[in-house]
Amino acid sequence: MSKNSWKRFTITSQITLCFLLIFISFSHCGLFYKGVPKAGEFCYVLIKPPECLYVDFEAKKLIWNDVEYTLEEKLRMDYFFKSNDELYELTVSTVNRVELKNLTTANFNKFYMRKKDKFAEIPTPDAKHE
């Protein structure tokens, strides 16, 4: 191999290695995350005592106000359910935060933060919403 060929080879290898490292770093930051967040308890902390709900995204189940709801998935991180003939939207903002909106009533918009695993408990609903 000549000196110029060797230089081109090393420069090309370095550029390829840089692109590979950039791709690997972006693939682990959540930019290309395709899954759903793990199940957990989320709480609205602006009221005392905090109002909590439990969501299992894989099973598409929500327990809110001691009632279990089946979630309809609209997009990968948007879910819908009905309660008392009102339509609600549950949006996953981040793996640690969900937003609950009442689409029937204006001015109902709450952010729920994930409860730490060591404090979270799986509630048992009193009723199942049909």
Structure report:
The chain has 130 residues and is an alpha+beta fold. It has one helix and ten strands; from the N terminus they run αββββββββββ. A ten-stranded mixed β-sheet has the order 5-6-7-8-9-1-2-3-4-10, with no helix packed on it. The radius of gyration is 23 Å and the shape is elongated. It starts with a helix and ends with a strand.
Pick out the low-confidence regions.
none
Q: Biggest β-sheet: count, sense, barrel? A: 10 strands, mixed
Quaternary state of the chains: single chain
Helical content (DSSP H or I, runs of 4+): 10-25%
Number of strands: 10
Range of strand content: 35-45%
Radius of gyration: 23 Å
- Judged by helices, strands and strand pairing, the structural class is alpha+beta
Helix and strand pattern? HEEEEEEEEEE
Number of helices: 1
Arithmetic mean of pLDDT? 81
| Structural shape | elongated
Spatial ordering of strands, largest sheet: 5-6-7-8-9-1-2-3-4-10
Distance between the termini: 74 Å
SSE order and pairing:
Elements: H1 3-27, E1 40-44, E2 51-56, E3 61-64, E4 67-70, E5 72-75, E6 78-83, E7 86-94, E8 97-102, E9 109-114, E10 127-128
Parallel strand pairs: 4-10
Antiparallel strand pairs: 1-2, 1-9, 2-3, 3-4, 5-6, 6-7, 7-8, 8-9
Give the key terms.
130 residues, alpha+beta, 1 helix, 10 strands, 19% helix, elongated
